[in-house]
Amino acid sequence: MGKSDALGKKLMQNNDYFADAFNAGLFDGRTVVNPENLHSLEPDEIEIGNKETGADEVWNKSRDVIKELFVKTDGKSYYVLLGVENQSRVHTAMPLRSLMYDTFRYLKQARDVDDKYKKARKNGFSPKMTAEEFLSSWKYTDRLTPVITLVIYYGSDEWNGAMSLHDMFSEDIDPGILKYVPDYHINLIQPSKMQDFDKFKSDFGTLMESIRYKDDEQELVKLFHEKPEVDPLIGEAIGYYVDERWRNAANVIEGGKVNMSRAADVIEERGRLSKAVEIVQNMIRKFHVSLEEACETANISVEDYKKYTAK
To answer: Taken in order 274, 275, 276, 281, is the CA torsion positive or negative?
Structure first.
């Protein structure tokens, strides 16, 4: 498992960040997913070949994270399965991959229903079923639990991969034919397209916003002064997905939080020193002044200049 995979899974194993990603990314900031109502499930999705036909192919795929959500609203209660796929780079066939995971999870539900009926018959409690229900191993009253997969893209560039199954078909296909092919769209969070980060209620939003402004140091400095305290895991993620300097310059404060404003000050000072050193070197090269004179003009001490250029 690579660093990105491990870090993404750690982030989404946290119920607060998991719920925040769904609420901000899919539900416009509304609290549809309550962290207290989430229960982690085994992420493996396994499909075994048909023994009756002699097929022995076994598919064994593992999602990044999948959780069961209990929803109770308007006098109704039900369950929904929520899966997450973390991507640090664009996956050009993501619709197919997500569709595969969702399909396996639905098939698993159907197998569980079938196993329930077989077990009942074995124990002498044969359920009342019509011929159609018996052949299908599925009663008219049986129901599937919905599965929603969210793709979280930790890259700062725009996602240029397919967004739906239809995007993966040839443009030459007649639309009159394609309209009979069910489509499948991915649910995607990509920071580069986000504008309203206030929809996030946790530090996960700070991570998404820092990725959004990865290449704009001025905006990052502003962000970390406005939101100085973050969870250590978020600080680690910012260091990995944005810039290692932020994590190295940050310091842990009381309560176990990471102080990113300190990191912002350090980076800001490094930027100032970088510009000052450039001025000094240009003055010495063009005007042949002494190091001391150039440093005085650039408002940098000779000592700081030597420390910076000694790196």
So the answer is: positive
The answer, as to whether pTM is greater than 0.85, is yes
Note whether 145 and 80 are within 8 A (CB): yes
Q: Which tokens belong to 103? A: 């399909």
Contact 82, 69 (CB under 8 A): yes
Q: Is 161:90 a contact under the CB 8 Å cutoff?
A: yes
DSSP string, 92-137: TTHHHHHHHHHHHHHHHHHHHHHHHHHHHHHTT-PPP--HHHHHHT
Are 261 and 230 spatial neighbours (Cβ–Cβ below 8 Å)?
Answer: no
Query: In this predicted model, what pLDDT tens digit does every residue of 207-259 receive, in sequence order?
Result: 999 999 999 988 999 999 999 899 999 999 999 999 887 777 777 666 778 88
Nearest to 229 by CA among 260, 197, 262, 267: 260
Nearest to 205 by CA among 246, 159, 238: 238
